[in-house]
Amino acid sequence: MRYYALLAFVFVVAACGEQIGPPVVASNIVVTAPASGMPMAAAYLDITNRSGASIRITGVTSPDYESVEMHETTIEDGVARMRAIPVLEITDGETATFERGGKHLMLMRPVDTPDVVTLNFYSEDQLLLSVNAEFTAVTD
Amino acid sequence: MRPRNLLVAFLLGTAIAAGLTLALRMGSEVAVPVRATVLPAGNALPPFALLDHDGTAVDNTIFEGQWDLVFFGFTHCPDICPATMQILMQVKMKLAEQNQDPMPRVVLVSVDPERDTPEIMSKYVSAFGDGNLGITGDLSEVSKVAAALGIYFAKAQAENGNYSVDHSTVVLVINPDGRFQALFSAPHRVEDFVHDLPLIMATQ
After folding, report:
1. Min CA distance, A36 vs chain B (Å)?
2. Domain A10-136 part of CATH 3.40.50.10810
3. pLDDT (0 to 100) of residue B75
4. What strands lie across the sheet with B171-174, from one edge to the other?
5. A2 lies within 8 A of chain B by CB
6. CB 3.0-4.6 Å disulfide test: which of A73, B15, B94, B133 passes with B107?
7. Domain B37-201 belongs in CATH node 3.40.30.10
8. Average pLDDT of B110-133?
9. Which of B76, B80, B87 to mutate against chain A (most A CBs within 10 Å)?
10. CA separation for the pair B180, B44 (Å, rounded)
11. In the prediction, which pLDDT does B41 show?
């Protein structure tokens, strides 16, 4: 599996424009392009919390997709199950890894055909992290 | 040398040669599948009536005449299904590099026929290379085939109205007689298939 960073920019902001200390960093971002005509794409990345406090990711949005959900695939007794992750907590100094066969972002119903996908990570209404990434072919 | 001595020498030489050959064969390792579970006799599939990705009615005979790698998944699965299809595509590429003959076909059987129309299946399987086959159709027919092959799947409803489908992750090997010959359990690795498949396919 080939993971490589396509990070265009990452920034950390807080409500009211206040910066929340050390950054929350995204790396190893891969957004797999859906097969032709399919409404689903998946995104994988590492999110490292260096903010000095725990963060709680409660939602992800994209201007390029109608809906983005955090999901986790588990394989138990040979059966794959995919379930939504309502809240993802990342303690200070920890890295949450979204990878194939594990946590991932499910991007549903594209609103256009962008070359670059923007993903915004929120804690409630507070924007924690915004990333842009190019598509990678699903077969790469 | 007398004829009798010649005969004894010939028989002795032959015996020594045969013994050396046998010893060499016993000493060398015989390649066997390392990852796949092989069913020596193969299991028959139950009769079924489904559709291929062109919308053509198909039955058991669709699996006859070639080796098939069969995965039960669905096209709205963003993670494990494309990952598995990608692995199987890479397997075929590696086998082609080795001039493997015969080459297996990749078959995706939808566990979500409600959304996976033949048209969608066609687009999906073709994204993972040429010659792949998509099968969908009536849910009860899919269930019948899946049950006979030990494949589990069940719809998992989400709170927002969407749904996913829990499903087995094994890749089945169907032989040219249309019989279930072997299976690969997850996690799937390209090298396991590339090692085991030629050995399995050499049995016929």
Report:
1. 6
2. no
3. 94
4. B37-44, B179-184, B171-174, B68-73, B105-110, B133-136, B50-52, B57-58
5. no
6. B133
7. yes
8. 95
9. B80
10. 6
11. 87
Domain ranges of chain B: 1-30, 37-201
CA distances (Å), B137 to each of A2, A90, B143, B201, in order? 34, 43, 10, 29
The SS3 assignment for B33 reads coil
Whether residue A73 is predicted with pLDDT greater than 80 in this model: the reply is: yes
**What type of residue is A120?**
N
Helices and strands: H and E segment counts in chain A:
0, 12
B interface mutation test: which of A3, A40, A77, A109 has the most B CBs within 10 A? A40
Dihedral of CA atoms A92, A93, A94, A96 in degrees, nearest 10, equals: 90
B164–A104 C-beta distance less than 8 A: no
Strand-pair partners of A27: A46
pLDDT at residue A139 is higher than 80: no
Task: Give the pLDDT score at A43.
Answer: 96
Interface confidence (ipTM) of the complex: 0.77
pLDDT tens by residue, B11-39:
555 554 554 444 445 445 678 899 999 99
Q: Report which of residues A5 and A137 the model is more confident about.
A: A137
The kind and range of the H/E element at B118 are helix B118-126
Exposed e or buried b per residue across B102-123, where buried means at least 16 C-beta atoms within 10 angstroms of its C-beta: eebbbbbbbbbbeebbbebbbb
